[in-house]
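Tutorial, part two.
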Amino acid sequence: MLSASVLGQAPRSNPHAVPKGSPAPLGATVLPGGVNFSVFSKDAKLIELLLFDAPDAPQPSRVIRLEPRDHRTYHYWHVFVPGLAAGAIYAYRAFGPFAPEQGLRFDREKVLLDPYGRAVAVPAAYDREAAGRPGDNAATAMKSVVTDPRGYDWEGDRPLCRPFTETVIYELHVGGFTRHPSSGVAPNKAGTYAGLIEKIPYLVELGVTAVELLPVFQFDPFDAPRGRTNYWGYQPISFFAPHHAYSSVPGALAVLDEFRDMVKALHRAGLEVILDVVFNHTTEGGTGGPTLAYRGLANDTYYILEEDRARYADYTGCGNTLNANQATVRRLIQDSLNYWVTEMHVDGFRFDLASILSRDEAGRPLPNPPVLWDIETDPRLAGTKLIAEAWDAGGLYQVGGFIGDAWQEWNGRFRDDVRRFVKGDRGTVSGLVTRLLGSPDLYAHENREAEQSVNFVACHDGFTLNDVVSYDQKHNEANGEDNRDGANDNHSWNTGVEGPTDDPAIEALRNRQVKNFFAILMLSAGTPMWLMGDEVRRTQRGNNNAYCQDNEISWFDWRDLERHADVLRFVRLVGVLRRHRDIVGEDDKLTLTELLQKTRVEWHGVALGCPDWSEESRSIALTMETVRGRFLLHLIFNAYWEPLNFELPPAPAGSNERWRRCIDTGLASPADICVPNAAEPIVDGHYLAQARSVVVLILKLHHADETE
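Running the prediction step on this input gives:
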C-alpha cells in the first residue's frame, strides 16, 4: 500500500468509478463530455493523473490512480475524465523501480509533463533543481495543459509550399528580434510572437521569403550556467507546446493563439515559417539531470543508453541522446511534425544535429534510418521543407551524403570555404569556385537540384558576419567558462584591429568584406540563408557561443539600420538581382548537373582564358550565359590585397551592347550596386577590380527585354 505521505493528500478517485478511456490518441484530447488522457510507460506499475487548480498549486486538487487492470492497454495508460475542458492543468506521477543498472529511473515523488502535451504551464517558482533532488516538487514543476485546437479561425490559411528555387531564408530568434528597447514595439510585445508580427514589413522589404525560427518548442531557460539563461532554446522539454515565454499575453492557452496569429500574418505577407527543431536530446541531461518527463516515464525507451545501462550515450554534447529510431520515439517525432504542420500551419523544419536521427538504438549509424524515411514518405508532410544539419557531436558528418531524396542540407563547407577565400587565405580559389557552382563535389552525384545546398556564411552558432570581419579570436568571457567554450577556428580576420574601431579605413574595409560575403552568398547556386541582423552588421562583441546571453549581446539593435544603412541597401538590392531568375540562373526543373551544363561557364584570370588555380592565387573571374540565354554575366572575385586589372570578354558578334556594372563592392555606396537597367556601361576592355572586392558585370543579349 502506498503511503499518503508519498502520494500527497489530494482527494483520490476510485479507479472503478472513472471511465477507462482509450489508448489513442496519445496526450490529452477534448471529447464530448470530458477529456481523454493517454500516456506511454512500459515498465510503470502504477500511474497517477494529477489535476491542478493553478500552475503553482502546492498539491494537485485531484489525483486519479490508473491501475493496470482498468486503465492500461499494452504499454499505454489511459482514462476519460468527465467534465474537464481545454485549460485544465494536469501532470503525471509514475511508480516503478528505480534501477539505473537496468535503465529504469522511476521517481514517484516527481511531477511529470505529458510528452504529448500541447501546452505547458510554468509556475512562477519553477525550480529545475528540485526536479533533480529527493522530495516532492509539485509546487515548482512545469505542468501540461489541455488544449482544443478546433476553435481557432485560420481564415483559409495554409502552408505556402514555396519552391526552394524561390527561397531566401532569414534565421532569427523570436525573443531577440524585438527585445531590444530600440525595436519600437510595445513593451508587453517585446520579444514575443506578437512583436515579430509588427516587424513583418521589415522582413518583406529585406527580400527574404522564409523565417527560420530558433527553437520555439517549450524549453527550459534555466538549463544554463548559474546566473545565466538558456537563450537559444536548444534544451527542449516538449515537442508539441510552443514556448510560453514568447507570448505577450499571460496564460498557457494564449500562446497557442499568438503563435498561430504570427504564422497567419507571415503567410499573408508571403513569408514561410521554418522551425528549428531539436529531436536529438532533451533538457533532462545526463545522470545528474532533473526528472521532468521522459526519464520518469520510460527512460530506457526515450534515450540511447550505454552498455552500462546506468549511463547515457551522449552524441549531442548535452548529456543525453534521444532514441530516435526506437518505434515509440519515432512515432512521437512524426506525430510532433504532423501537429506543427496540420494544426499550426508551419512550412518546414530545420533539424538540429540531424545525423543523430540516423543512429540506431545502440548509437551506431544506420544505412537507411527508419525515422528519416518515416518523415520523408509521410503524405501529410509532402511539400514541407526538410532541412538537415547533417552532423552531430559524436563525429558523424554527413554533408553531401544525408539519407533521402527530399532533404536539403546546411552546407558547412560553403561557410568555411567562402570565409577562407574572402579572408585571403592561400589555396582557396578552387574551394570558392566549387561553392559558387552549388557544391557539385557534394551533391552532383545525387542528381538533385542546386538548392539542395543551404548556403550560409554565418548562423546562430558562431560569429555574426560583422564579427567574422572584426575579430581574430573568440571572446566568450561573459559565458562564465573562461573562454573555453565555442569554436576556436572561425576563419575570421579582424582587418587590423580586434573589435570595435573608429578608424574609417578599417570600417570601410569591414563594410566591403560584409558586402563581399553577401554578394557571394546571394549569387551562388543553392538556397541562401543568413543570420538575423547580419544585413546591418549586428555584433555579439566577439562571442561565438552566445547561447546563454539573453541580453544586448544577442538582441537585434534596431539602431543599426541607420548606422549601417549602406550595407542594408546593398543586401536589399543584391536580393533583387537574385530574384531576377534569369540573372542567377534559377530553374526548378534543372538538376545541379543540368544547370552546370546549361550555363557554360568560362574561367579567367586577369587575362581571358587564363585562370590562376595555384595555391598563391587570390582571384578568379568567370563568364556565363544565363539559363534562359538573355544575358551574359562576367563575375570577378578579387581577394588579393591590391587592385587587379582584369581583361573583359568582347561582346558577341553583331552585338552593339556593352558590359554594364551592377556590383562593385570596391566602390562607395550608392555606386556599389544597382539594378541592371540603371547600370553604367564599361567603355574600356578592362576592369580594375579594387583590392578585396566582388564585381558583377552584365551584358544584355539581343533577345532580352527591358525588365529590371
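The longest helix spans residues 504-523. In part three we will examine how such features are distributed along the chain.
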